[in-house]
Amino acid sequence: MNKEKITLIGAGLAGPLMATYLANRGYSVDIFERRSDMRKSELSAGRSINLALSARGIHALKDVEIYDKIELIAIPMKGRMIHDLDGTTQLQPYGQGENEVIYSVSRAQLNMDLMTLAENTGLVDIHFEHKLDFADLDNNELTFGDKRVFFDKVLGCDGSSSALRKAIHKKSIAEYFKKPLGHGYKELTIPPSDSGDFRIEKFALHIWPRGEFMLIALPNMDGSFTCTLFFPMTGPTSFETVKNENEIMSLFQNHFPDAFELMPTLCEDFQNNPTGNLATVYCNPWHYKDKAVLLGDAAHAVVPFFGQGMNASFQDCSVLNNLIGKYSGDWDKIFENFSTFHVKNGHAIAEMAIENYIEMRDSVNDPNYKKRRQLEFDLEQKFPDRFIPRYSMVSFHQIPYSEVYNRGEIQLELMNKFLTGEITESNLHTTILNKLHPIT
Q1: CA 346, CA 364: separation in Å to the nearest integer?
Q2: Rounded Cα–Cα distance for residues 150 and 190 (Å)
Q3: Which of 356, 378, 399 is a domain's end point?
Q4: What is the pLDDT of residues 25-54, one digit of tens each?
């Protein structure tokens, strides 16, 4: 048994996963969570009902031996089902192989299963209804209301409004800023049919791209779809101007007519479910000395348009776990290396997520985008170890996000030059061999 007791803030998705990694290495862990135990209370609607799980997250779940259980509640989505304004649909595959799919999973069920997994190690205690008010990093003391807790090491998995991040930023030279997107989101529902069936294609992520905004839908195990409207916060057509029943119905009848027909509780859901704000959190470094470190949204909250928020957070846990193994007991080196080598990956996926919003809401119907997408697949078949579409590198591989970003920029430039006739096919192939090193 290790002498140090690890204190962890937040029992969302990353917290219990990281606690399990630590318990598997013999550490005892106390998790402090501001909410009540969701396994014992009714879940509130309207926020992140389901999430997209892909390779990086799957790797972590396999690490702690829970993936076989999660796989049973995961629905494979093989591509984007694009819904045009006239009601026609087209499937744009995510990848080329049968295994190149992403999975829709229930956030709540995954969270509950991870908490139970952590507790079942016998080394993890979760203390609910404990909101961190203040972290004293000089005296290793945490304040939860009128309760004070001393820590040896503290890990912050407490989300985009992290109290531990605030303490690190105040105490150190850490850079931090939060960049609002100017768009928000509202979660809505397509219920199952009267017979309990899915009313649109089950094995796809549905997108209604409309330029400045979009609607998406992910399948649930009960035959329903969780829909999310991504919409400007202010402006002529925005959450500011669409509020009453007539405005809501007009928006959907004009822009999402085929979805409107499938959403009997649209107005009720729109008016009752909260409007979420979208923003990106940038922080560097993610640690303070050998005392504290940030993971997940606390370190790098990203907008959800690459489906990588959860996957990036789970990868943080895998990376930190590997460093704990490499530098056993030397927390200076563990935390320093975590920041030095991993912050750039958090920044890279943040940028790619914002870029993917533009692609999803607008570019997917652009003829040039479709040509480039087909060219990506063709080049991947010809150079499978060198040229991998950026979406595939992110979702189906574990290539560091920063490398994905850099390779993606090179690949995009080459494809654009080829499609505009600036370079020949022969030059394209030669440049790929010269500029893109093999991926092992």
Answers
A1: 25
A2: 47
A3: 356
A4: 999 999 999 999 999 987 655 445 789 999
